[in-house]
Automatic annotation (TrEMBL):
Organism taxonomic ancestry: Eukaryota, Fungi, Dikarya, Basidiomycota, Agaricomycotina
All residue ranges annotated as the AB hydrolase-1 domain in the record: 36-341
InterPro entries listed in its UniProt record: AB_hydrolase_1 (IPR000073), AB_hydrolase_fold (IPR029058)
The protein, known as: AB hydrolase-1 domain-containing protein
Annotated organism of origin: Moniliophthora roreri (strain MCA 2997)
Pfam families from the UniProt entry: Abhydrolase_6
């Protein structure tokens, strides 16, 4: 059941592409507030952020949770577009950016939200694989166009990377992690037909894991909790109605096609490097990395690798990036402890 306090809407963009979203609305009696656009992860819809949206007015935020293309309520990808993803065409990543930017521009224009200099501004938060879309704004600026770029410069303030896995950043794994011991549900030989893999994914991704943070590294399996499931799993607590509201299992195979092809991974990696190391594009925008240390190994490894790369390149020309560890959190802290999660989100947005 949808939240009656949230506005549900659909924007029709170029080429009749539809993007559905929910909006917490402007905080009551507030002329100055920050708008946060939330981009969901693989298999899960924006509806999973409703508890966070309910807290938005009290924190002087307007939280908009969009549903990406290929997900319920938004336009599916065409077969030619899917073929382009499978072939790793550069235009596929640029197209993700164009759709996302068109949504941002439409929301800014229709809702007349306050600019940065007016005490407002826009933050973008990508959760999990949603980071691919969030970082797409750092694609080739020529594709975006100078007028759009200039407009967004007046609004964008922070991009939050909320617990992304390595595939969302385009990082090649250390060979040790190609071992069957490093469990991921899409490679589970016991899960047949494919639909069973998608069911196992919801449990695997929502469990708490007990990694040994004193010894884990990007260079080997030692210290990682590589189980397929643990005895603390959020998915076990969802009712059938909640699972239907949060999950779009039909989108999961599309996601794997979109992001996993080696050529696509190279394009995604280039965007990650632009975001981290090239502040010529949107120089005032800073990054915040929200890390959940009890998430699956794929996100824990990605955090360690990002931190390693950033520290190696720490120089005057890199973008400001704050690493924030959310103590005791797993990949779904936004649902499990929305008040705690909101506090982590508000801090970078209020200081930008």
């Amino acid at each position: 059941m949808s939240d009656p306090n949230l506005r549900e809407d659909v924007y029709t963009l170029f080429e009749d592409i539809r993007i559905s979203f929910t909006d917490s609305g402007a905080p009551p009696n507030a002329n100055k507030y920050t708008t946060l656009i939330v981009v969901h992860g693989t298999g899960f819809l924006g509806a999973g952020f409703a508890a966070m949206q309910a807290l938005a007015p009290a924190n002087n935020l307007r939280v908009v949770a969009m549903d990406r293309r290929g997900y319920r309520g938004s336009t599916p990808f065409t077969e030619p577009e899917m073929e382009d993803f499978r072939n790793g065409k550069r235009d596929s990543v640029d197209r993700l950016m164009r759709v996302f930017v068109a949504f941002l521009v439409s929301f800014i224009e229709k809702e007349k939200i306050p600019k940065l200099q007016e005490g407002g501004g826009v933050g973008v938060m990508g959760w999990s694989s949603g980071v691919i879309t969030a970082l797409s704004i750092f694609s080739d600026p020529d594709t975006m166009g100078p007028e759009t770029y200039s407009m967004l410069e007046e609004y964008l303030k922070d991009v939050i990377l909320y617990d992304p896995p390595y595939l969302a950043l385009g990082y090649p794994l250390h060979p040790d992690f190609q071992s069957p011991a490093a469990y991921v549900p899409w490679n589970d030989p016991k899960a047949t037909p494919p639909e069973e893999k998608y069911g196992r994914f919801a449990y695997w991704v929502s469990c708490y894991y007990e990694h040994d943070h004193t010894i884990i590294s990007t260079q080997g399996l030692d210290g990682y909790d590589l189980r397929s499931r643990t005895n603390r799993c959020l998915a076990e607590t969802w009712s059938e109605e909640q699972a239907k509201m949060f999950i779009d299992a039909n989108a999961i195979p599309v996601e794997f096609d979109v992001r996993s092809h080696p050529s696509m991974q190279l394009h995604i990696r280039r965007n990650t490097e632009r975001a981290l190391f090239d502040k010529k594009l949107f120089p005032r925008v800073k990054l915040t990395y929200l890390y959940a240390p009890e998430s699956p190994w794929t996100t824990v490894w990605a955090y360690l690798e990002t931190k390693r790369l950033y520290m190696e390149r720490n120089a005057d020309d890199v973008r400001s990036l704050e690493f924030v560890e959310m103590k005791g959190a797993n990949h779904f802290i936004h649902q499990i402890s929305p008040e705690d999660f909101m506090a982590y989100v508000v801090k970078p947005l209020s200081s930008a």
